[in-house]
Amino acid sequence: MSSNEELVRQKDEADGKVGDLQRELEGERTKAVEEKGRLQRELEAERVQAVAEKEILKKELKAEKAKAASERAALQKELDEERAKAASKRVAYPDLCVTAVEQFKGSTEFQTAVDAAVARNLAGQESGGTGPSRTTAGGWVDEVGEQYGSGFFLGCGEYLEVVEEESEDLTRQIETHHYLTRLNQDFIQCGVYDTDDSHSRLIGVEYIITDRIFETLPPDEQKLWHCHAYEIKSGLWVNPQVPELVLKPELENLTKAYGKFWCTWQVDRGKFPLGPPSLMMSPQPMNLGKVRPHLVEKRDWKYRISVDDLKMSRVEIEEPEWINPQADYWKQHGKGFVVLIEPIEMKKMAPFS
Fold first, then answer.
1. Helices marked H in the chain
2. For residue 262, is pLDDT > 90?
3. What whole-number distance in Å separates Cα of residue 338 and Cα of residue 172?
4. Interatomic CA distance for residues 248 and 257, integer angstroms
5. Residue 176 exposed, middle or buried by CB count within 10 Å (0-12, 13-18, 19+)
6. How many CA atoms lie within 13 A of 66 on its CB side?
7. 278: left (phi over 0), alpha (psi -120 to 50) or beta
8. pTM higher than 0.70, yes or no?
9. What is the pLDDT of residues 61-98, one digit of tens each?
10. Sign of the dihedral defined by the CA atoms of residues 222, 223, 224, 230, in that order
């Protein structure tokens, strides 16, 4: 075979290989175009699906907004009804008081008590005294109450029920019943019992002072006291069977007052008053200071009252402009106080020897 024939043969083989490569390349191009088309169709389908899902989500969101608006409207209507109901009750309080007075004013004992109270008031003014306060339930109401007995006017500045908490363990919450004695316009002392029935046990004593007196106490002493503002505003402080209208002037004063309560008998821990006394604190709307709901529900059921109604009736009672931060010390510092019993050497010399 001549060299020319060899070259022709090699050229034909090369041309054949090039043709094969071109056909293979064309096939790959066709496949690529088809794949591209398929991917574009899938992308378009996904876009269509995404648009459809977006529309569905828009409709669901719109429906949820409409539902929420409807629920808000229903809640607002219910709130307005409750407010109207509370307002109606507040308006009715004067009628309740008038009815109560009308019921008892015809009795000889009541008239005698009123006459005696007025006579003492006039005598006090003539002798230079101030007489009973006109702004508190501890004024003429207490005067009449002393004469008439503990029945009709028992609650008017004389008795209250509230939940107290132990300083060293705020989770220990107890129902307490205070029987108040006003020593003067700045100072009240309370015998505290575990119930209000004939089998009640004396479990401690609480002293209540005005903010004016509290501000004169040493800082270390102030740490042992608590403010009554939250107890009163939240409806936890209650004088059973006494209309809020009668109590309001007294409560307005007591929101600014401070108390120190020593519990000498932990009746939930033993049948006898054992160990040192415990310092008690008032409930607060934070952390462990919150009162357990079942205690409030139990009280409301017992006295046929509503903590929500009490809150509503006390909305207009103003918060104190200043609450000394030393009071309710645990709120700022997270520390309570406990009494420890330690033996010490006795004085062996009598003062008269």
1. 3-104, 108-126, 140-148, 211-214, 219-222, 229-233, 244-254, 293-303, 307-313, 329-333
2. yes
3. 14
4. 14
5. buried
6. 6
7. beta
8. no
9. 999 999 989 988 888 888 888 878 777 765 555 555 55
10. positive
